[in-house]
Amino acid sequence: MTTPPAPLRFPPQAPTLEAGRWLLRPFSTADVPALRAYLTDPAVTSQTNYDIRSPRDVEMLVQYYTHAYSRHTDIRWAIVSNDDPSSLVGSCGLSSINERHRRAEIGYDLAPDHWGKGIATEAVTRVLKFAFEELGLNRIEATVMSGNEAAERVLTRLGFQREGVLRQYKVSRGIARDYTLFSLLRDEWLAAHAGTPDPEPATRGAS
């Protein structure tokens, strides 16, 4: 008889993670204005699946982020500066967490003023460490809207493998769009990060 895998190791509360220059903390209602400002920017929406039509849409999104962790299906962090934890610059997290198959999908976005500064790479690296080494996942997937070359570069830099194109995979603002599927396995992550020191401190409890 095959031994079932051990349960995923969810902390009692969504943790706050340190990621180099940045802090990944749980969302709060105070983040709504900053999140709305960049999620309604055409530079962001043209390459993502967001469809923000009213201020209420953003409020509901933040409410979802703040409650999803208790269901162990999604974790979304606000990316803020270590020097100013109230200054939201983007978000990063895991969705569609599947305990049986030990996989999840990673997603991330940034305000345009913060593009090209390595923030996404730092944030995604820390979330991957949490996912593989702390939570216990085996596979992380990412689906990127065709044409979003910046998002693809982040994934390729971090060792993700391109698996193929998912044709008309998601309907975004009324249009069925193609997405490219990427994946990274736990063994690949561990092999690439063997001997890498942990950040100090690696994780903070949520307030």
Compile the SSE list and pairings.
Blueprint: E1 16-19, E2 22-26, H1 32-39, H2 42-45, H3 55-68, E3 75-81, E4 84-98, E5 103-110, H4 119-135, E6 139-145, H5 149-157, E7 161-172, E8 175-185, H6 186-192, E9 203-204
Helix pairs in contact: 1-3
Question: What does this entry look like structurally?
Answer:
The protein has a domain at 16-140: Aminopeptidase (3-Layer(aba) Sandwich), CATH 3.40.630. The termini are far apart. Helices cover 29% and strands 34% of the residues. Helix 1 crosses helix 3 (55-68). It has a nine-stranded mixed beta sheet with strand order 7-8-6-5-4-3-2-1-9, sandwiched between helices. The protein contains six helices and nine strands; from the N terminus they run ββαααβββαβαββαβ. Residues 199-207 have low confidence and may be disordered. Strand 5, helix 4 and strand 6 form a beta-alpha-beta unit. It is α+β, with helices and mostly antiparallel strands and 207 residues long.
Note the gap between the termini. Answer: 43 Å
| Structure summary, number of beta strands | 9
Low-confidence stretches: 199-207
The count of helical stretches stands at 6
Q: What's the architecture of the domain at 16-140, going by CATH?
A: 3-Layer(aba) Sandwich
Structural class: alpha+beta
Percent strand equals 25-35%
Q: What is the assigned CATH homologous superfamily of the domain at 16-140?
A: Gcn5-related N-acetyltransferase (GNAT)
Query: Rg, please?
Result: 17 Å
- Specify the overall morphology: globular
Give the biggest beta sheet: 9 strands, mixed
Strand order of the largest sheet: 7-8-6-5-4-3-2-1-9
Helical residue percent?
25-40%
Give, in order, the helices and strands: EEHHHEEEHEHEEHE
Mean pLDDT: 90
CATH topology of the domain at 16-140: Aminopeptidase
The first-level CATH class name of the domain at 16-140: Alpha Beta
